[in-house]
């Protein structure tokens, strides 16, 4: 049920009889219903219209004065609350702006770091591709060395008469394998030039001939 101006006036009169100031909240407590906004509007309209309204009961001067004081007090409270909220909002805005600047700086740093990491990753991928190619070349060289050793050992078993000579060749091949293994380790560390030299020399060698 909607509130009426008469209910507002009656509630204010009750407060005056109690010796209490007729604020919006006090009127709300007396009525026991209605929103603060509606009560405030009705009290404001009643205070403005009451002196000039015809065919209505004239409000006492003391009651009108109490209404004006109550509205002025309420207006001050609302204004002070609004100013306080405005100050808090401005402070919050300053904090948010500072946080936004900080986040933008962090974002820029993250972008630079990501760019550097991308470059490092690309370089690493290039090095990895080179190492893979080098490793494949070394694997083939080792396979060739292994095949030569197997062939030499087979010839040694088939030609017992040439055992001593073949044993020397086998020993030589073993030495070459050890050297190739050592070279593999060095080549995996980036000595691509030595790998090419090793590959070229291994292709020109023939079984049964000692290499100085």
Please render the helix and strand layout as text:
Elements: H1 5-18, H2 24-31, H3 36-49, H4 61-158, H5 163-188, H6 192-204
Helix pairs in contact: 1-2, 2-3, 3-4, 4-5, 4-6, 5-6
Describe this structure in words.
By secondary structure, the protein is an all-alpha fold. It has a domain at 5-59. Helix content is 82%, strand content 0%. The protein contains six helices and no strands. The protein has helices at residues 5-18, 24-31, 36-49, 61-158, 163-188, 192-204. Helix 1 crosses helix 2. It is rod-shaped. The N and C termini lie far apart (117 Å).
Question: Key terms for this structure?
Answer:
212 residues; mainly alpha; 6 helices; 82% helix
- Multimeric state of these chains? single chain
SS summary, helix count: 6
Structure classification = mainly alpha
Q: What is the terminal separation in angstroms?
A: 117 Å
Q: Radius of gyration over alpha carbons?
A: 51 Å
Topology, number of strands: 0
Largest sheet: none
SSE ordering: HHHHHH
Measured by DSSP, the beta-strand proportion falls in under 5%
Helix content: over 70%
What's the pLDDT, averaged over the residues? 77
Which word captures the global form?
Answer: rod-shaped
- Residue runs with pLDDT of under 50 for 5 or more positions: 50-56
């Amino acid at each position: 049920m909607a509130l009426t101006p008469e209910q507002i006036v009656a509630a204010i009169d009750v407060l005056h009889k109690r010796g209490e100031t007729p604020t919006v909240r006090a009127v709300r407590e007396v009525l026991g219903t209605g929103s603060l906004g509606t009560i405030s509007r009705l009290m404001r309209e009643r205070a403005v219209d009451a002196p000039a309204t015809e065919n209505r009961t004239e409000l006492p001067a003391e009651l009108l004065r109490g209404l004006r004081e109550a509205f002025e007090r309420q207006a001050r409270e609302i204004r002070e609350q609004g100013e306080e909220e405005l100050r808090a909002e401005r402070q919050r805005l300053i904090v948010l702006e500072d946080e936004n600047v900080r986040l933008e700086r962090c974002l820029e740093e993250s972008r630079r770091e990501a760019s550097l990491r991308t470059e490092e990753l690309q370089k690493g991928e290039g090095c990895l591709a080179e190492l893979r190619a080098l490793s494949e070349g070394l694997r083939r060289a080792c396979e060739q060395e292994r095949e030569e050793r197997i062939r030499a050992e087979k010839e040694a078993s088939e030609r017992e008469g040439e055992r001593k000579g073949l044993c020397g060749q086998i020993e030589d091949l073993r030495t070459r394998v050890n050297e190739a293994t050592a070279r593999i380790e060095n080549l995996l560390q980036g000595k691509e030039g030595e790998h090419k030299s090793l590959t070229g020399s291994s292709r020109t060698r023939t079984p049964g001939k000692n290499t100085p």
